Amino acid sequence: MLMIRPSTAVRAAVLGLATGSRSSLGPCAPLWSRARAHGRKGLLCSTVLAVAGELAMDKVPGMPGRTTGPVLALRVLSGAVGGGLLALGLGERVVPTAVIAALAVPASAAAGVGWRAGWSGPAHVDAVLEDTAALTLACLAVSGTRAAVS
To answer: What is the pTM of this model?
Structure first.
């Protein structure tokens, strides 16, 4: 049986929720945690730049929707990779952790689209609120971990 600690399952789900909003957070959050823990400035900068790039590109008109087939599939894959990296950092089993993270992605992606569609305030405010929520979730998911990936 492929068991993991309940706290790992929660972390994986939280990382998946963050990834549903910002796909780069799947792999980048655990890698960022590893970079911080081991003083790897190059990796730290790379992860920050990747996430910042997505945050900026998400604001460009004409970007494909996050719930469209291929985009959602890549987002789910990103969640699975992030879940696997998270598992390695926690010394847990990779497959169940990756599956949990991946399963949380579509719900979060759909919720984000629905929330933004119903937002009546300025567009830049909802974007900043969503980005802040995604970054907070990602930080919570990897808090205290040391991703064991070089």
So the answer is: 0.90
Q: Is the dihedral of CA 126, 63, 85, 149 positive or negative?
A: negative
Token look-up 């929330």 returns 115
Could you give the CA distance from residue 34 to residue 9 in angstroms, rounded to a whole number? 19
**Is residue 83 within 8 Å of 28, Cβ to Cβ?**
no
Nearest CA among 128, 132, 115, 117 for reference residue 25: 132
- Residue for token pair 């790992």: 8
Please write the tens of the pLDDT for every residue from 56-114.
887 788 888 889 899 999 999 999 999 999 999 999 999 999 999 999 999 999 999 99
Q: CA neighbours within 13 Å on the CB side: how many for 3?
A: 3
Arithmetic mean of pLDDT over the chain: 90
Q: What contacts 121, CB < 8 A, 6 or more positions away? A: none
Give the contacts of 138 (CB within 8 A, at least 6 positions apart): 14, 15, 18, 19, 22, 25, 28, 29
Sequence-separated (6 or more) residues with CB below 8 Å from residue 99: 80, 83
Domain boundaries, the chain: 6-142
Locus of tokens 């979060």: 108
